[in-house]
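Need tokens for this chain, all 211 residues.
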Amino acid sequence: MHSVSTMPAPSVTSSKAAQAPTPHSIWKTSILFTLIATVIFGIAYPLTVTLLAGLLFPHQAAGSLILQNGQVIGSELLAQSFTSDRYFHPRPSAAGNGYDATSSGGSNLAQSNAKLVQRIQGDINKLSAASNGKPVPIDLVTTSGSGLDPDITPDAAYFQAPRIAKARNLSEDRVHALIAQHITGRQFGLLGEPRINVLMLNLDLDAQTSK
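Here are the structure tokens for all 211 residues:
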């Protein structure tokens, strides 16, 4: 004879209940994730970067401002309008009414746009006539994407040298030497192109000729 087990059978209901995952609210998870991400990336990270920048690179963090006699006269990062023959001129600007730091932007005109073509050709004709037909560097007649590019190419600076020399009663060799001192090469020797900061060059030009 076989004995019949008197052990109670396992409860299917209680087994399933033990294996069921703990319910959670997707809203609670979403809100917690948003709060944590906001604290880390919206508060902690910007504050850390700002503090480190202020400690390690105070000049750049403050906007690369240029002071003269205790007054802010510009920034190394923003172009300014120079129209006098005594100064080097920057690239044309389509930012606002021109060189407006609160309205950065280009003209957004296509190369086929008649208005753009006429404006560029007019500038080329004017500059070429004033320089005895010398080829005009392209950056002296085209705007940058921001309209606030503070730099010009060395060719653009040398192109303007005769005008500067005549207006300030200097030799062209002296103006060329000053230009050469302000040429910044490619970053790490690879990135970008040689360039000259117009504002810094003009400030040095004033300082040199006032001696």
